[in-house]
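Hey forum,

I'm writing up a methods section and want to include a predicted complex as supplementary material. The small molecule is pyridoxal-5'-phosphate. I've pasted the protein sequence and the SMILES. Can someone with a working setup run it? I'll credit the forum in the acknowledgements.
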Amino acid sequence: MIIQKIEESKFTPEVFNIKVFGKAFTDHMLLCHYKDGKWNVPVIKPYGKLEFTPAVSVAHYGQGIFEGMKAYKGPDGEAYLFRPEENFERFNKSAVRMDMPQIPEEIFMDGIRTLVDIDRQWIPDKYGMSLYIRPVMFGTEEAISAKSSDEFLFSIVMAVAPNYYNKPLSLKIADKFSRAANGGTGFAKAAGNYGASFYPARVAREEGYDQVIWTDDATHTLIEEAGTMNVIIRIGDKLLTAPVSERILNGVTRKSILQLAEDAGIEVEVRPITVKEVYEAHKSGELKEVIGVGTAVVVNNYAAVGYGEEKLSLPELPAEDCFGSILKKKLVDLQMGISEDPYGWRQLVEHPIEA
Ligand SMILES: *Cc1c(COP(=O)(O)O)cnc(C)c1O
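Reply by user p_vandermeer:
Happy to help. Structure tokens for the complex are below, copy them as they are.
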């Protein structure tokens, strides 16, 4: 790895007061080019612009994938990652589906560790805050024939993640639009999935909602995801979530929350969830929580769900009775190194011995 450090850091402690996500980038980025069938030596250099012509392949055909993960500062002042190997494996699964080359583990993992180590002062030490890490890969060949790009760029950029307020959001259950279909790219973090979801989200906002609850594309009768998060539903004292599939992304937060719930003695059922049973549970007063789970926001309890013309509001539970709040605290405490990690999920970012 080639490392070119910035001459003067842009860091100021004020960046930790930011309220928006994904704008306050750190001093450095990683770049690694793929050409002639092989990966070049990765380079870490000051964060900045790249040069492309409008013929760059990704702009035409959308061959692009990404990942999302975080670095946390523990009470010991050290930097930690959370289950990064899960993101590495998923990145390469996304790459296969998008006909892109595999990224070698050492480029992905050593790249993240070295970048986090170099920019460790950018990891906030406030509870619930973290440094968001965004690995991305896209086709960079200068060619406009409709084929797989011959050249790719793998990059990692990082930005300070604010502590999200649990602003009470309401979500519209999709009855027309779809995020994913069988045989498609729904399980991959493929750029186009997100591009295609922005318009349905806009329509939902125009109808007075904040986001979309995605349903199955064939019948719109099964609850699948919430915006760009997995969704967990509490009926009575049981948590329900759909099994991951070709259409449902295998979220690390979902997996971790389900494990924490089971170990806290909460009943968890992984099976297809129908819109009808959620509607009926609301009518009978058994629908307690609709929870979105994903790396960026971690856990979000929604305030209401729109079904057809009806807005089903969810009860406002005190934090000690809210499974979403209980599990969020368990997860964040573990990620930040405040609680024990019996699972081996946390990973220390070592300081390399450096002159
Ligand atoms: C990234 C993502 C998630 C959440 O995955 P995490 O690994 O928990 O961050 C869920 N659904 C979609 C569609 C996603 O892109």
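Some notes you might quote in the supplement: The helical segments are 57-61, 84-97, 105-118, 191-195, 198-206, 252-263, 275-283, 323-335. The CA atoms of residues 229 and 294 lie 5 Å apart.
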